[in-house]
């Protein structure tokens, strides 16, 4: 009998501890998601306030960030005549924005950037 009381108490205590932990994790995760979605609403290409914003990947998911690395994206091309701005895969900045985008991955791209998939813009 005494053993049953102990087991029941242990079970109830652990149940509430686990519930509290899950609730805390849910609140933290929910808060992060809300912040991410707020940033996502500002647009994938960043905003209009300058160079630093083209480095802001806070609203971009990890898979898309990894694509940048796999494709060898750098924010400043080391080739004089080859950069994102004259690449056929470059997405021009939306009105008022300084950061462009790329067809290959989400997020802001520097016009002066470059990656291994650079293709000359023939138009
Ligand atoms: S493919 Fe590479 S070089 Fe071309 S726009 Fe995208 S990141 Fe820039």
UniProtKB/TrEMBL annotation:
> Segment Disordered: which positions?
33-58
**Does the record bear Transport in its keywords?**
yes
SUPFAM superfamilies hit by this protein: HIPIP (high potential iron protein)
Domain High potential iron-sulfur proteins family profile, chain residue ranges per copy:
54-123
Q: Which UniProt keywords apply?
A: 4Fe-4S, Electron transport, Iron, Iron-sulfur, Metal-binding, Transport
Is the keyword Electron transport assigned to this protein?
yes
Q: What is this protein called?
A: High-potential iron-sulfur protein
Q: Which domain of life is it from?
A: Bacteria
Subunit structure as annotated in this protein's UniProt entry:
Homodimer.
Return the Pfam families for the record: HIPIP
Annotated family? Belongs to the high-potential iron-sulfur protein (HiPIP) family.
Q: Name one GO molecular function term.
A: metal ion binding
Xref: InterPro entries: High_potential_FeS_prot, HIPIP_sf
A Gene Ontology annotation in the biological process aspect, one of them, is:
aerobic electron transport chain
Q: What does this protein do?
A: Specific class of high-redox-potential 4Fe-4S ferredoxins. Functions in anaerobic electron transport in most purple and in some other photosynthetic bacteria and in at least one genus (Paracoccus) of halophilic, denitrifying bacteria.
């Amino acid at each position: 009998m005494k053993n049953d009381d102990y087991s029941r108490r242990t079970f109830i205590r652990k149940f509430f501890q686990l519930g509290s932990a899950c609730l805390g994790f849910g609140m933290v995760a929910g808060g992060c998601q809300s912040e991410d979605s707020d940033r996502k609403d500002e647009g994938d290409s960043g905003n209009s306030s300058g160079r630093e914003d083209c480095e802001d990947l806070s609203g971009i998911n990890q898979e898309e960030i990894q694509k940048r690395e796999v494709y060898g994206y750098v924010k400043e091309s080391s080739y004089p005549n080859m950069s994102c701005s004259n690449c056929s895969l470059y997405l021009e900045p939306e009105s008022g924005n300084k950061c462009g985008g790329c067809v290959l991955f989400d997020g802001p791209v520097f016009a002066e950037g470059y990656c291994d998939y650079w293709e000359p813009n023939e138009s």
